[in-house]
Amino acid sequence: MPPMSYGTYARPPLKDLVEISTLPADKVPTSASSSHRLIVIGDVHGQINELKALLDKAEYSKKRGDHIIFTGDLINKGVDSPGVVQLAMDLGASSVRGNHEDRILLAWDNENSRNILGSKAADKGGKIADLKGLSPELVDDMAEPALDGQSGTQSAEVQVARSLNKKQREWLSNLPVILKVGSLPSYGHVVVVHAGLVPDIPLESQDPWAVMHMRTLVYPAEQLRRERTKKMLEDIRSEQAGKRVSVPDEEVDRELQNSHDRGEGRADRNVALPVEGRGGKPWSEAWDENQEKLNGDIEKTTVVYGHDAKRGLNVGKFAFGLDSSCVKGGRLTAMIFEPQGGKVGHRLVSVECQMAPGEKAKANEEQRRKKRGDDEQKR
């Protein structure tokens, strides 16, 4: 029985969202005789200078037939979101829809909906009817404070949306949540997403919100078994000691392993819930384990993704995370699929990044807040 995942998130309903697209076969270097390459780039977040530097270092050549795929989050936080989007469009690049594209488009939809409601009319060039993945019910579904007075975050997102021209917004709205690249020898099926996928769930059944936001997987049955095991051990130890005793996690782990060795709990991971937080098992680890278990008749699937800047560059066997925190002064990373020694292989290329001014201001404020807290503790 395959695991199940559930879309339980409070995102407004989706309308005409492009969930899955397939990259044209002529973009994929499927043989050693191919001269063109496939360049997959992690989260840019408006860092236009770093993107240009990375393309130079990767020796990108449109004339040779190189093709670029972005893992989403081209925009927001950085210095030039319109410039990044325009460059991607000019180069004929592909991309998937990241959570920041989604948020900016939702903010734009909400802003225009408020204007339309207030004036009963809107300039034709400002309408959002051509944008996909939005909702006609958005005004009712968004929180009231967002309609009556924008929060600082939402206001900033509206500003980014306004900085984009109509064609740029439409290009972003047409980005798929999942991009099927095709088959590559030794990689199997290659798929690009922004955040992640749930193992054993068909691409067509993946929750779009989760694909754009997830970081880890939680297993409710497994968590319940752990809680019950911990309580059982603590009850036993407490009765023996004549007082309440807390059992360390290591002892719970050993007991769970013993029960697993007895054949118990094998179905505990039949239900997997993708979550945005970091409290569960990294989905990429679960993905690698799942692909390793597939029998030889089933082609493996390799996922290239971004999103998880805190975890950083993460190279697995069947999952490659490319968000190396460029916008916070880390690096901008590309994974290049290219002919190598008679087959198609890959290599990683990256460049240093300058921290975006907005991120630097947030970091400075965090340092000031921490210092104030330390000073108060010393008093």
Would you mind describing this structure in some detail?
- The chain has 379 residues and is of the alpha/beta class.
- The protein has helices at 48-57, 81-90, 99-119, 138-141, 144-148, 152-163, 166-173, 208-213, 220-241, 249-261, 283-293, 357-378, and strands at residues 20-22, 38-41, 67-70, 94-95, 178-184, 188-193, 216-218, 273-275, 281-282, 301-305, 314-315, 319-321, 331-340, 343-352.
- The protein has 2 domains: 20-215 and 280-369, Purple Acid Phosphatase, chain A, domain 2; 220-261.
- Helix content is 38%, strand content 17%.
- Strands 1-5-6-10-12-11 form a 6-stranded mixed β-sheet.
- β13 and β14 (343-352) form a beta hairpin.
- α9 (220-241) crosses α10.
- 36% of the residues are buried.
Which structural class should the secondary elements be placed in? alpha/beta
Predict the CATH topology of the largest domain: Purple Acid Phosphatase, chain A, domain 2
- Percent of sequence in beta strands: 15-25%
Which consecutive residue ranges, at least 5 long each, have pLDDT under 50? 1-8, 119-129, 135-150
Main pleated sheet: 6 strands, mixed
Strand order of the largest sheet: 1-5-6-10-12-11
Provide mean pLDDT, rounded. Answer: 83
Radius of gyration: 24 Å
Pfam family, one: Metallophos
GO molecular function: endopolyphosphatase activity; phosphatase activity
Protein name: Metallo-dependent phosphatase-like protein
InterPro entries: Ap4A_hydrolase (IPR050126), Calcineurin-like_PHP (IPR004843), Metallo-depent_PP-like (IPR029052)
